[in-house]
Amino acid sequence: MKKYLKFAVIGITAGLCNGLFGSGGGTVAVPCMEKFLGIKKTKAHASAIAIILPLTVISIFFYTKRGFFNFPLVWQTSLGGVFGGLIGAWVLKKIKPYILARIFGVFLIIAAVRMVF
């Protein structure tokens, strides 16, 4: 598959997940970037953040338009999210890729089990 087609497929899939579920774009983008583009784990995780930003902005627009967006909740939790993001970015620089992969895998398993049950 040509590289630009891979970019498009990964982007469309991540965007679809993000728009449909309100999350999950990075969950799709990270392993796809690793497997299909040969991107290292830490770079894939860091890049997923930048990929998700425009997807999130578009999703917010449509969720707000349909009355699903909770502004007070966003403002009340955003400060903690900013600090968590800073800590996560710092840890990402320090952590070994195989440990990151295991943590991410456990996170995905827990998320999947919670969704099913």
TrEMBL record:
Q: Where is the signal peptide?
A: none
Q: Which UniProt keywords apply?
A: Cell membrane, Membrane, Transmembrane, Transmembrane helix
GO cellular component, alphabetical, reads:
plasma membrane
- Domain of life assignment: Bacteria
Matching entries from Pfam families are given as: TauE
Q: Which InterPro entries match?
A: TM_pro_TauE-like (IPR002781), TSUP/Inactive_protease-like (IPR051598)
Can you say where in the cell this protein is located? Cell membrane; Membrane
Q: Which residues cross the membrane?
A: 45-64, 71-92, 98-116
Report the membrane topology from the UniProt record: Multi-pass membrane protein
Query: Which PANTHER family does the UniProt entry name for this protein?
Result: MEMBRANE TRANSPORTER PROTEIN MJ0441-RELATED, MEMBRANE TRANSPORTER PROTEIN YJNA-RELATED
- Family stated for the protein in its record: Belongs to the 4-toluene sulfonate uptake permease (TSUP) (TC 2.A.102) family.
Its name, as the record gives it, is Probable membrane transporter protein
**Organism in which the protein naturally occurs:** Qingrenia yutianensis
